[in-house]
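so i finally got all the pieces together for this one. its two components total, 495 residues if u count the protein bits. some of the lines might not be protein, just check the labels. i wanna see the whole assembly predicted at once instead of chain by chain like last time, that was a mess tbh
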Amino acid sequence: MEQEIVRYRKPTVILHWIHAGAFVTLFLTGLILFVPPLAILAQDGWTRLLHRIAAVIFIVAPLIYIPLNWKSSIRGIKDAFRWSAEDLGWLQAAPRYYFLCDEEAMPPQGHMNTGQKMWWFMVIVFGLIFAISGLIMWFLKGIVPPGVIQWFIFLHDVAFIATALMFFVHIYMSVVHPLVRPLRTGSWASMTRGKVSAEYARTHYGKWYEEVTSSKKRKE
Amino acid sequence: MADKAIMYDATKCTACRGCQVACKQWNENDEQGLEQTTNRGSYENPPDLSPRTWLRITFHEVEVNGKVKWLFNRQACMHCTDAACVRVCPNGTLYHNEYGTVSYNKDTCTGCGYCVEACPFHIPRLDGNKISGLAKMAKCAFCTQPGLDRISQGWEPACVKTCPPKALVYGNRDQLVLLAKQRVSELKSKGVPNANLYGEKELNGLHVMYILEESPELYGLPLDPQIPPVTIAWKGILQPIGWILGGLTLAGLALNYIVAREAKINRDLPGRKEK
């Protein structure tokens, strides 16, 4: 059997899918207010109720995850804000890699490549903006001046547009792009089973692969 | 059809509040129970508009040139031509009807409350549950509610019908503007120097116009009502940008798929097998 490496631990995989489910629900119930012909679906406000239920999950799930996985959470959050010259290398190689499928163009990557880091960064920043502006719109309506609520609706929409764009890219990269290896070895497997093949890790996350294998050797 | 309007002559109003009662009865808002109010030391009652109170007379005690004046005003939807509520309504629940006034379809209302925040006159009100978010907006619909539509029957709105001193007049908007201007100059010649017409030009023309004997501010009316800048920034700038960026992203991904698929097929041609 092909050797496999754990890429995401079980709690992380569970959090990802709970959060993904909440996000998609929030995204769709929000999107219909953005698209006038679809907005009629929001009639009687049942999508508002759904939006709120999903919002609670969206906020509570990480709040449960983070204290239970304190060390890896902090490390992960720090990773999102740590940018270096290596990220330039990724950005330079990305067009050749993603358009021309030239896999050799890409320098070795750490646990997260720059593209994933960009998504992760936006998840943190816009997740916070969503949560704060959403809670204000939910609970401070009629308490703070109407202009304040309107500016938070505006901010909520900014976050919506930014994350919607990155969300399209995220889905595309993980399930549609021609270079994505289906099911067993690639990115899909990493977030469903939590494991990737050693071969995939070596070719796509060279630096991370080195770290994992050398620490394993040390332990042995 | 010609735009319809209501002209409210504050100088004739006796604050009998017959319009308040007629509005409530005709629109069946009295059937939802009465609002309990307490004595606040004013004849003004109830203290504010609500989902069940679409029209009320406000009382203003003001000092003008050392003399106390008791001014009355009619607070209800202004039926703006450039209506912020119509701009922000996500699904067309609020719309301009054939008379140029602002109607709404209660069935399709999502309860989002955007209109409540955007209205420069703070007229629409939300009735619902704060936690679940299930709510419905309510406001004066110029007596065009389905089943309670007086205008299509050729009748005047309920408030106008009942007004004893004829302080409320209903008619074609352009004719009312002329009438109102006549009345203002008449008042001025009779020794009311500050008489003015409110609503002719505001927000491209309100469909409720006011003949006032003092500055609109003294009646609790904004001097220069505007669509809030945030409404314009949000609906007029941010959302179109969102559409453009969304379209560009999807187009970019489609292009990438076409190019990358071609590249991958070429790369995987026999003679260069994938590792």
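Residues 146-176 of chain A form the longest helix (31 residues).
Chain A is about 75% helix and 5% strand.
anyway lmk what u think
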